[in-house]
Specification:
Structural class: alpha+beta
Strand content: 5-15%
Order of helices and strands: HHEHHEEEEHEH
Strand order of the largest sheet: 1-3-2
Number of helices: 6
Bound molecules: zinc ion
Shape: flat
Length: about 150
Amino acid sequence: MTKEVREKIQALFDLKGLRMTRPREVILEAAFSDRGDHFTADELFEKARAIDRSTSRATLYRTVALLVEGGLLHEIDLGKGVTSYDPNFIDSPNHNHLVCIDCSNVIEFEDLHISVLEDCITRRLGFTPASKSVQIRARCDALKRAGTCVHLVD
Ligand SMILES: [Zn+2]
Ligand SMILES: [Zn+2]
């Protein structure tokens, strides 16, 4: 977890008058330790339980809801049928996703042109962007070419 992330979490906890307890600390560690990792609530629960077996689902759901409300976690749809959570918007607030519908691989990318375009479109429609993210759903060229891909799951 970077210093910046830790400071933002502490600021949110201060704002809400919450103490940094051990169960909350475990969930934060699970959520923000692996840069680039998006997760579902179930996946986060597994990660948190690997750190501390006594992690409870109730605490996890409450903490996740708090982080979403505070803008530190973003809910995203990766086509899994359940909500995924993205911890990377703190470090890169304008990142986008390419989701491979063949292999479930998720690639984050930033692009100045898309960002400028999103600003222009939003302002033209009479709004100010609050957060911006584009998602591209794509087929895997490696799988098509070679019949296999390192990212293939199942
Ligand atoms: Zn992301
Ligand atoms: Zn692939």
